[in-house]
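Me: Here is a favour to ask of a fellow structure person. Could you put it straight underneath, so I can go through it closely?

Assistant:
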Amino acid sequence: MAIETQNFLILILSVVLGAITGELLDIDRWLSQLSEGLKSRIGSSEKRFTEGLMTAFLLFCTGSMTIIGGIREGMTGDASLYYIKSLMDGVSSIALASAMGIGVLFSAIPLLILQAGITLSASFFGEIVPTDVITEISAVGGLLIVGLGIEILELRKMKIANYLPALVFAGILAVLI
């Protein structure tokens, strides 16, 4: 997805600005605290609960099907991409849950909020969103998935959650540039 960008400047600037914003807001720490709070609320003693929740959420939310599926459903009422995405996410979640535990199940909560937000936004603003914007957001999402893969393989700790604002910057820069 990242190589489908129409403008590498947008991709690079989005990631840099997103990383700076994410680090300043410390999104990774904030999500970790929310996850730990949920873990204590349900009484889980799993060591990898937070890691499982965050990894699954980031994997499921940064893909282009999340963005395009939400926009399509919001604009047309056609949820077919979300159905396909749900099937793919279900299969992936089984593999992730076997390695990271029950936290993967609870990633559905923030994912539902995100997908509902995209769908509702698209129902109001979707007709004015150019396809270039969707392409650039998808390209940044693809790059974030590569980073998540690096993190899952434990090659490097990257705090991918701190890069999430890059998705917003991609949309803004695609309109401006």
User: Anything to note?
Assistant: The chain has a mean pLDDT of 89.
